[in-house]
Each structure stands twice: as structure tokens, then as C-alpha cells.
Specification:
7 helices, alpha/beta, F-box domain-containing protein, 170 residues
Length: 170
């Protein structure tokens, strides 16, 4: 009886081992056939991915990954939608230097929502006349004293069709 019990346990153990091996083999086959590295994707697919991401997050995620992604990010004609909230002043200054200034003619949407919005606007004022493709601008938590100056800069933009300014003073 004891031997019969051992034999049954061995059969169950062997069955479970074979099942695990089969699952491991199937998993390995699946990973080799269907899972690929992001770096193996074509440029066109990567651009498709970029379109679904916010420009700021794309920059943070891909810019320093490797030279290929830096070039893909920098040398494209895709329009840029920028949505910046919760960013330090130093990071914003870096963002202006590396992304906004070199690609200002590609920005079609800009949304700033931050405690430093006024400081950000001061950095952007000299650049605003170059935002030739800007269609939508949203400024949140801006001090009222900056609104008139912003409007003066925006009057020269050819295709701006949406402007939202939410003041701290309101």
C-alpha cells in the first residue's frame, strides 16, 4: 500500500514537472517570437508611439536613452504638444533650452500649470513670436499682472485659435 502511494505521488510529481517544463518551453517560445526590444522597432512605429505621449514625458523617457532616440526626437517634423505641470524651475529652463528653443516652430499646443508659471512665461516671452504653429495656449495659475504682457506677445501669432488663462488673482 505504501509503495502504491509513493508511486501515485511520483506520477503526480512527474506530471507537475512535465507541465512546468511545457509552460517554460511555451513561455520561451512566446518571448522569442512576440516580444521585441523597443530599440528594434522601426522609426515609423516609434514616431507613432511618440504621438501618443506628452512631449515632456517623451523627452524625459527617451532623450538620454541613446543616440538613436535622441536623433529621432530631435529630427522629426511631428507637431509638439507640450503640457508642463509639476516641474522645477531648473528643469523647465533645461527644457526650454533643449526642446522648446530648437523646436519652437513645431509647437502647436502649450499648457503650463505650475507654481512657476509666471517665471516660465518670462522665459517664453522672447520666444512667443516664433510660435508660428501654436494653435492652443493654456496658462494656469498665472498672476494677473502678466496677462496683458502675454496678450501683447500673442497678438502676433497667426493661427492661435484657443487661449485659456486662469489667474491666481481671480
Amino acid at each position: 500500500m505504501e509503495q502504491n502511494k509513493r508511486s501515485r505521488n511520483n506520477i503526480i510529481h512527474d506530471y507537475n514537472d512535465n507541465k512546468r517544463k511545457k509552460i517554460n518551453i511555451e513561455t520561451n517560445c512566446l518571448s522569442k517570437e512576440y516580444i521585441t526590444n523597443l530599440e528594434d522597432l522601426s522609426n515609423e512605429l516609434i514616431y507613432e508611439i511618440f504621438e501618443f505621449l506628452d512631449c515632456h514625458h517623451t523627452f524625459q523617457a527617451f532623450y538620454d536613452l541613446n543616440q538613436r532616440f535622441r536623433n529621432l526626437f530631435l529630427h522629426t517634423n511631428l507637431l509638439i504638444k507640450i503640457n508642463i505641470s509639476s516641474i522645477s524651475k531648473s528643469k523647465f529652463e533645461s527644457y526650454v533650452k533643449h526642446i522648446i528653443k530648437p523646436h519652437i516652430n513645431r509647437i502647436n499646443s502649450l499648457r503650463l500649470s505650475n507654481p512657476f508659471t509666471a517665471d516660465m512665461c518670462l522665459l517664453l516671452f522672447p520666444l512667443m513670436t516664433n510660435l508660428i504653429r501654436l494653435q492652443a495656449l493654456t496658462l494656469i495659475d498665472i498672476e494677473a499682472k502678466y496677462i496683458e504682457e502675454i496678450l501683447n506677445y500673442l497678438s502676433s501669432l497667426p493661427i492661435l485659435s484657443s487661449l485659456i488663462i486662469i489667474s491666481l488673482d481671480s
